[in-house]
Specification:
Length: 606
């Protein structure tokens, strides 16, 4: 059967997973009476809840005698480690762009990786049936983006289509018949080349592992594209590390190929196809699986380095061990090492005391997803404020800079620019009208300046602004950036909070807890209205008297407390504070810095 391997690239919420749903339906992958789910490729609970793609996944459809392997890539740069590996498996990319928003930062990030590999893109302008769609402008912006990213003449001569993924149609012309996706299928078959590996069928077997998974029945599974040769189930192969060192010899117990949404066992893996192998015990991502006669490893794509680090420690608060079952540092360490094995964008290291672990990654969202997965598995953790990783380049201290794209209503643009270019040390790159009373602001801002900014940004724009960010590069250190301005309210007692006490404390600031909440000494229960921290007593009840007059008893009506999400809590805390994460609660508390941590915190603050 003829073969095509493609990846679909899109910014968050531009309709990528919905389009894959329609490709599966219209290719005849489903039976007529088969029950289907919306966003079928988002198999992970967190992906469904948040509406984002976190893990790269493959599927396969048949169209007029051609098998098309489709890889769904994450749309957020924090999960870019997935993207960098996945693109080495495909021969073409479909770039999906919202016809109203145009190419966005995450699109730029993944597209730059695809163009650098020499892949020729197909541009699909999605959601052209939206009232504010401007497909011609979006198409021009795509061309400009490709030119800025150094695309060659073949890549700039890209075909484009107009589509509505939700309605299930794609046409070469804007006023086309709008019936189905057959034009897109035909374009993929005609434009994307067949894998060059097919001509290397007679060579020894070679495959580069790009994703790691596990199955409760067959164990460890490695997925990748067969670069040369063929492999039959039951044959013996060996795994080589990047530098060619032997990791293990193993018998390939099973070969799985993607057929629709499921994987089916096949007898033979052939050059060019994307398959999963089982039977190994040590081999992992970026290792080469080769025939016994081969001694050279395949070149693996370099992975961009991490830009932030977060400290994961045991939960040592007075309420520790009440919710979770996994509380020991040994168990936490094993779980983090397991994560680092499959996610090459994460690096784990021990702290000097050995009770906590430094986890380096791409961004707050990536860390938030890891912590959320761990708390759902029953872990209890204490999490520090994210710190930016610095580099010394030619003797100069460099820090990561992010390209920030902001869409705000015109009336709020001044406040946003003042915050970004002032204390947060950003540089304004471009500012232009985005239509419908909105302004698009593009700025280069230090990663340090964006930690904890999102909540403030939503307040400044009354919840209407949209902020997207992507790693831009390294620049000389920009100097000190002030942290959170407001102090916090700290509990001085242990017990259950009392409504009357919280009611009296409301004039001091905004509360994070309600009545009858468990509190302990050192726990942060609210934000102070001034810059200093304040110790308060949330357990203080009303003094009883024998006076019973209608005017003496005031009704206690508490303002609704602020409920923070995990990412908001991690971004909110200061260097001397921690987030306590358990399966059922997210709490903030003060901590005592030892001299080593105090020195590191001062260095990070510049």
């Amino acid at each position: 059967m003829d073969l095509r391997n493609i990846a679909i690239i899109a910014h968050v919420d531009h309709g990528k997973t919905t389009l894959v749903d329609e490709l599966l339906k219209q290719s005849g992958t489903y039976r007529d009476n088969q029950a289907t789910t919306e966003r079928a490729m988002d198999s992970n609970d967190l992906e469904r809840e948040r509406g984002i793609t976190i893990l790269a996944k493959a599927t396969s459809v048949e169209w007029k005698g051609t098998r098309i392997n489709i890889v769904d890539t994450p749309g957020h740069a924090d999960f870019g480690g997935e993207v960098e590996r996945i693109l080495s498996m495909v021969d073409g990319v479909v770039l999906l762009v919202d016809a109203a928003e145009g190419p966005m930062p995450q699109t730029k990030f993944v597209t730059s990786k695809a163009l650098a590999l020499g892949l020729r893109p197909i541009v699909v302008l999605n959601k052209v049936d939206k009232p504010d769609a401007e497909p011609d402008r979006a198409l021009d912006e795509c061309f400009d983006l490709f030119a800025n990213l150094g695309a060659d003449d073949d890549q700039l001569d890209f075909p484009s289509m107009y589509a509505s993924g939700r309605s299930g149609w794609a046409d070469m012309e804007l006023d086309g018949p709008r019936k189905d996706l057959s034009a897109l299928f035909d374009l993929i078959v005609d434009h994307v080349p067949a894998p060059a590996q097919i001509s290397r069928k007679d060579e020894p077997f070679r495959m580069l592992a790009t994703t790691l998974g596990s199955d409760p029945f067959i164990g460890r599974i490695l997925t990748g594209r067969v670069e040369s040769g063929t492999l039959k189930a039951g044959e013996t192969v060996k795994a080589l590390s990047r530098d060619g060192a032997l990791i293990e010899n193993f018998r390939c117990t099973k070969i799985l190929a993607f057929r629709g949404l499921s994987q089916q066992a096949i007898e033979t893996a052939e050059a060019g196809d994307i398959v999963s192998l089982a039977g190994m015990s040590k081999a992992t991502v970026a290792d080469s699986i080769v025939a016994p006669s081969v001694d050279d490893a395949l070149p693996a794509q370099p992975i961009d380095p991490p830009t932030i680090t977060v400290t994961f420690g045991i939960n040592d608060s007075p309420l520790a061990g009440r919710d979770g079952k996994k509380v020991q540092s040994r168990v936490i360490r094993e779980r983090l090492l397991k994560e680092a094995e499959s996610n090459v964008a994460i690096k784990i290291s021990d702290t000097p005391g050995g009770e906590a672990f430094e986890v380096a990654g791409r961004g707050e969202l990536q860390m938030g997803v890891l912590i959320e997965n761990m708390r759902r598995e029953g872990f209890e953790l204490s999490i520090s404020r994210p710190q930016v990783l610095f580099r010394d380049i030619d003797g100069q201290r460099m820090e990561p800079i992010e390209e920030t794209t902001i869409d705000v209503d015109d009336e709020y643009s001044g406040a946003v620019i003042e915050k970004i270019t002032g204390a947060r040390r950003g540089e304004l790159v471009e500012m232009k009208p985005a239509g419908a009373g909105k302004t698009r602001i593009i700025a280069h801002v230090p990663s340090r300046g964006l930690i904890g900014y999102h909540g403030e940004f939503l307040t400044d724009t009354r919840g209407t602004g949209v902020l997207n960010r992507v790693f831009h590069g390294w620049a000389p250190h920009k100097g000190a950036i002030p942290g959170r301005r407001a102090g916090v309210l700290i509990s001085m007692e242990k017990g259950q909070s009392v409504a009357y006490a919280l009611w009296n404390l409301e004039e001091r600031g905004r509360m994070f807890i309600g009545a009858q909440a468990e509190v302990y000494q050192g726990m942060i229960i609210g934000e102070h209205s001034r810059e200093n921290d304040l110790e308060v007593n949330p357990l203080k009840g009303k003094k009883l008297t024998n006076v019973r007059a209608s005017g003496t008893d005031e009704a206690v009506r508490l303002t609704t407390p602020i409920t923070m999400s995990l990412e908001e809590a991690i971004a909110y805390i200061d260097d001397d504070e921690l987030v306590e994460v358990t399966p059922n609660a997210i709490r903030l508390r003060k901590r005592h810095l030892d001299p080593h941590e105090r020195k590191r915190a001062a260095k990070a603050a510049g």
